Amino acid sequence: MANPADIALEKAARFESLSDDDAYALLQVPSSDLAALCEVAGKLRDAFHGRTLTYSPKVFLPVTNLCRDRCTYCTFRRDPGEAGEWTMTPDEIGDWSRRARSVGCIEALMCLGDKPEIAFRDFRSFLTGHGVASTAEYVALACRVALSEGLLPHTNAGLLSKRDMAMLRPLNASMGLMLENVSPRLRDRGMPHHHAPDKDPARRLKMIREAGQLHIPFTSGILVGIGENEAERIASLLALRRLHARHGHIQEVIVQNFRAKRSTAMADCAELSDQEMLRTVAVARLVLGSAMNLQAPPNLSPEALPHLIRAGINDWGGVSPLSIDYVNPEAAWPEVERLRALCTDEGYGLQARLPIYDAFVTEQFVDSAMLPAIATLRTRAASGHATVQQDPGKGAAQ
Q: Where are the chain's structural domains?
C-alpha cells in the first residue's frame, strides 16, 4: 500500500487540493525528504505566481506599545511609566509618514498592543484628551493622518470587534491579525499565552471570520516555535484555509518563527532550526495551495533566505528603510538591494507591492473612499518609483 505522505505529495504535485487527512499525512514526510517537499512547494508557487517575488515598502508605526496581554516571548509591550513606553501622537504619526513617503514607502503599518484602555486608566485619559473613546478610534485618527501624507494604512491592532473593523475599513487598504495557533493548550498554565486573554484562539478565529463577513482583505498567519507541535501547526493552517474558502478574504498567510529574547520568560527556549522552518513553509504552501500569497519575514531567518524561496514563499512582507521591527528589534531588515540580488541569484525578480494585493482591488473588497489612494500608489509601485532609499535617520522611531 502506498505511503499516505507520498500520496499527498503526488496530489499536490498534480495541483489537487489536499484533504485534511492529506495535510496531516505530510507529518510522515521524513526530514531527509525536505528537498522533495520543497520541490513540490516551489512548483506550486511558480505555477501561480511566476518568477517574481514581492515585498511591501513600509514604515512600522507602533501606535502604542501598551498592552493588557503578557505573552512570555514578547518585548514589545509596556506598562504605563515603564522604560520604553510610547504612544505616538498624531504629530509623530504625520512626521514619520512624511519621512516614509520621502524614502519610497507605501505602507503605514499600524501595530499596537491589545486593548490598553481596558487595563490602564492613564491611557483612557490620553484617549479622552484626543477626543476619542477607544483605541480603535485613535487608530482611525492615525490612519487618517497617514493617508493625508500619501501612505496606505494596514492595521494590526490585535483583537477588534466587528463594529471596530467596519469603522476602520474605509481607512485601510487591508487589515490583519496573526492567528498564531489554534491550540487552546498554549493558554494553559506555564504556556506562553496563559496571561494573554486576547490570544484565545476561538476569539481570534471569530475576528478573522468577521473580517471575511465585512469583505476586508486580511493578512493572518502562524507563529511557530512557541511550544506547539507539528500537528497543531497543520490544524492552524487548515483553520485559515477553511475561513478563506468560505469568505475569500485572506490575502496572505505568514509563517513567522519565534525568536528568543533576553529578559523574557522564554529567553532560554530553543528557536526553530532552519530545517524546521523550511519544512513548515513548504507544508504551508502544499496545504494552502498555489494561489495563496505566502510570506516568511526575511529578518527572522537571515541565513535561510535562498532556501525560503525554494520552500515556496512568494512574498517577503513589509521591509522598512526607515523604522525598526518593533516586535523583533534585534532583527534588522535586510537591505532591499540585497534581497533583489538574492532573488536574482535564485532566478526571480523582486517587485514592490501595496499592502493590498492586486487581486483584492475590487469593489467587493475595497471601500470606495480608498480607491483613489490605492490607484495612485498602485501606479507608483508598478512604475518602480517605490524603490526604497536608506533613510539617514533610520532607527528607533522615537
A: 4-20+34-383
Inter-helix orientation angle 4-13/34-49, to 10°: 20
Amino acid at 319: V
pLDDT single digits (tens) 28-58 = 999 889 999 999 999 999 999 999 999 999 9
54-86: buried (b, 16+ CB within 10 Å) or exposed (e) per residue? Answer: bbbbbbbbbbbbbbbbebbbbbbbbeeeeeebb
Q: Which of 305, 284, 307, 339 is nearest to 12 (CA)?
A: 284
Q: Shortest CA distance to 37 belongs to which of 348, 312, 342, 294?
A: 312
Pick from 197, 199, 220, 198: nearest CA to 208: 220
- Show Cβ contacts of residue 255 under 8 Å, excluding neighbours closer than 6 positions: 221, 222, 224, 277, 280, 281, 284, 294, 295, 296, 313
CATH topology of domain 4-20+34-383: TIM Barrel (3.20.20)
With a threshold of 0.90, does the pTM exceed it? yes
Model pLDDT for residues 146-201, shown as the tens digit of each residue: 999 999 999 999 999 999 999 999 999 999 999 999 999 999 999 999 999 999 99
Distant-in-sequence, close-in-space partners of 360: CB < 8 Å, separation ≥ 6: 174, 217, 249, 251, 366
Closest by Cα among 311, 284, 283 to 298: 311
Number of Cβ within 10 Å of residue 237's Cβ equals 25
The dihedral sign for the CA sequence 344, 384, 334, 302: negative
CB atoms within 10 A of CB 49: 20
Task: Report how far residue 169's alpha carbon sits from residue 154's, in angstroms, rounded to the nearest whole number.
Answer: 10
Q: Please provide the distance, in angstroms rounded to a whole number, between the alpha carbons at the two ends of the chain.
A: 62
Q: Locate 373 and state its grid cell.
A: 489612494
**C-alpha dihedral sign at 174, 177, 178, 184:** negative
Q: Percent of the chain, pLDDT > 70?
A: 96
